[in-house]
Structures are given as C-alpha cells and as structure tokens.
Structure of histidine kinase:
Amino acid sequence: MKDLFKKPLITYVLLFFVITVLTGLILVPFIEQLSILIAILLINYIILLVFFQYIYTNYIKPLSKATKTLSKINKGNYRARFHHSSNNIVGELSYKINALARSLSEYSIHEKTQRDQLATIIDNTDNGIVLIDEKGYIHLVNNKFLSMYGSTPKDYTGYLYYDVLDHEVFHNTIQNAFLYEKNVKNEFSHYIGIDKYYFEIVGVPIFNEKKRLKGAVLVIHDITELKKLELMRKDFVANVSHELRTPITSIRGFAETLMDNGLKDKDAANEFIKIIYNESDRMQVLIEELLTLSRMEQENFQLVLHKIDAGELIEQIIPTFRMKAQERKLTFSSSIENNLQFKADKDMFKQIIINLLDNAMNYTSELGEVNLAVTSTEEYIHIKVSDTGIGIEQKALPRIFERFYRVDKARSRHTGGTGLGLAIVKHIVDVHDGKIEIDSEVNKGTNVHVYLPKK
C-alpha cells in the first residue's frame, strides 16, 4: 500500500472516494430512495474527480517537475529545463525557470573563463604568489612559488602559513600586513641548490566591500639579476677608477720627474718618455674598448653585415700573432677550413679572433701552446681557440664574461690586458645571434668555442 500512495493521482482518487462515502453517510437520513442517493454520490464523485484531475494535470504535476528542475539547477546542472506550454501561471513559471537556468549557465561559463584566465596569469607570472585568508590559512600557491621552494600545492594549501612557510621574513611580512593593514616590503636571500638567490617580498592586505580585512597576498619577486647588476655596476665604477688611476699616476709621476731637471739624463728621460707613452696607450685602449662596449649596448646599434671569407680575414691577423708567439716563446698553430663564407660584420669578426688569441697568449706561460681552428657545421661557423695556459677555476667560469674580470690580475696587468676582451667577444657573439662556450681546467688549459650562424 505504501508504494500505491507514492503515485499522486491514485492517492487523490482514493481520497475523493473516501469523501464521497462520507458524503453518502451524511445524506442517508435525508434521502429515502437509495437510487437517488447513489446517483447524487456518483455525480459528486465524478465532479470531484474531474476537478482534481484538472488541478493535478495543470498545476500539481507541472509544479512537481518544476521543483525537480530547480533542484537540478541548484546542484549546478544549468542545462536542466522545465517545459510547460500553457499560458497560465505555471507556463510563466516555466519561462522564468528556463531563463534563470540560461542566465546561471552564462554566468557560470563567464566566471569559469575569468577563473581560468586568472589561474593562467597567476601560474605564468614571474613572481611567486601565496594567498592567505584572515585566519592565516593558505588558499593558493602558484607555479613560480613552487619552483622556488619545491613540493606541490597540497603541501601548502589548507595549512596555516607559519606551519609550512619556514622563512622568518614570511612570518614578519604577513603579520605586519595584518597588523598595520598596509603593504609591507622586505628582502631576503634563499639558496636553491648551491646557488644563492635574492628576493623581494611584498605583503598586500585584502579587504572586502565593507573595508574589513579578509586576508593577504604575498608576492615574491626574484631580484637576483638586479643584485648582480648592482654589484657589477659598483665593480665597474671601482675598476674603471682603478684602471685609469694607475696609468695617470705613472704619467704624472714621470712627468714631474722630467720637469724637475730629469731631461739632463737623456737615457733616463727616454725611458721615462717611453713609460709615459705606454701608459697613455694603455688608457687609450681602455677607453676605446669601453666605447666599443657602450656602442654595442645601445638599442639602435646595427650590424654592418657583409658576405665575408673567414680564411682571408684570419690570414690578415695571423702574422701579428706568430710574432707575438715567438716573442713569448709559445708554439702557435692554426687550421682554417677552406671556403668558409658567411654573413657577418667584418671588423667585429676580426675583433673576436684578435681578442681570443690575445687572451690565450696572455695566460699561457713560456713553451706553452696556442691553437686556432675554424671549421663549419650545417648551421654555424665554429671558432675554437685552445691553449695550455693557467686555466680557469670552475667557480670563476660564470663571471668570465664580466667587464674587468680577470682570472689572474697580476698577469693581466703585466701583459697590458684591460679585462674587457672577453666581455667584448660575448657582446659581438650576442649581436650576431651566436653562442660562446668555455671549458677549462686549472693548470691544463682552456678551450673557447664560438658559434656564429651562417645566415
């Protein structure tokens, strides 16, 4: 019987029957003829049945469907629809439910699109981002943050920030952002592997429409390159000052000696004049190399590209370095592949060869060897300069292309080096869209590989 009453129509039919029977019991004392009573009851039953059938078909059943449709919509199924073709209030309800479903569907799609766009932006930004609610629980960490600190989102989301963010600067930044309700900025360093990185962290409080604090966002910006540039700038100023001060001091000292009757001793005077000339020449080389670097770093710098023959240009340079090798008791050899033609800036190409050979000979002791080899691959011209010199420590290799950086400062100054040779080579290679690589071993020698594109 329980299953029977689950069907609304059967329930109402039985209900009408009970009402009819009760009506008959009430009318029995007033109606003597049984046939009349039965006829009245039957008519009453039919009228009630037809009336409630109409109510059920046009209102109860559609409203039941409407309720089910609204339940589906409430659960997030915005494709659910309720169709009723009548022009009564149920038909109007049908129209409004379907309109609501369409609006919610459009809003859901729009919200998802915005959410996906925001997630894409957050995950692809160069800054680490951590979202924290007003109770201190982490709700979001992006990919950049995870690349800095490792692990996965589940190791952070849902946890209190002071349980999973172990750096003290995080705690201070978050606490001050909550306490003072304003942006807080700090800097800190962090090791990733064996490398030291510098970061700037900004804590930004989040407020709702009623200006109540709802949480905070941490933005972690990698400022390692800025720190390196700042250090390089300081080193550059110090090095330029030192490089200029040394020859200027020498020139001034010997000039004062000559002024104080130093010309009476002709041999000494000639020696002093020679030193003054060499020091002024050293300053001129330094200034010219600085101007070369400055020119290449300008945004409007343009290469003068020509089709050149590498062999012909190198043959113009080789005799100078053969003489230099003889003076320093070095063995110098070269091998250049025939018909190496490609597009490049002629003067800059020669500068690469000159600087690399000069550097190799300056850092190679007597009886050592220096070799130049120029070959081609399918895409590149390969220039290799190798020596059996003092070599370079592995920890020094990342700095080898910095301005004024010297592997052996005493040797470099003794040979007249400015510390700008490899920096210039690196810039020339970069503006040609090439690449440069160095492998070296202390006391065994160095190999420098330069790859310049043929096209």
Q: What stands out?
A: Confidence is low (pLDDT under 50) at residues 1-6. Residues 59 and 130 are 53 Å apart (CA to CA). Residues 34-74 form the longest helix (41 residues). The two ends are 90 Å apart (CA to CA).
